[in-house]
Amino acid sequence: MAVRKSSMFTACVALMAVCAVLVIASGVWFGVAQEGECAQRARWPVAILGGCILLATLAGFAGAYSDHGRARYLLRIYFIAIPVLIVILVVFLVFAAVVTGGSGAYPLIGRAYDEYRLDGFSMWLRGYVSGDPGGWEEIRSCLAGSDTCKKLARQASFVTADEFYKSSLTPLQSGCCKPPSECGFRYVGPTVWTNPTSAPDHDCGLWSNNPGQLCYECESCRAGLLATLRSQWHKVNIALVVATVSLIFLYVAGFIAYKKARK
Question: What's this model's pTM, rounded to 2 decimal places?
Answer without folding.
Answer: 0.85
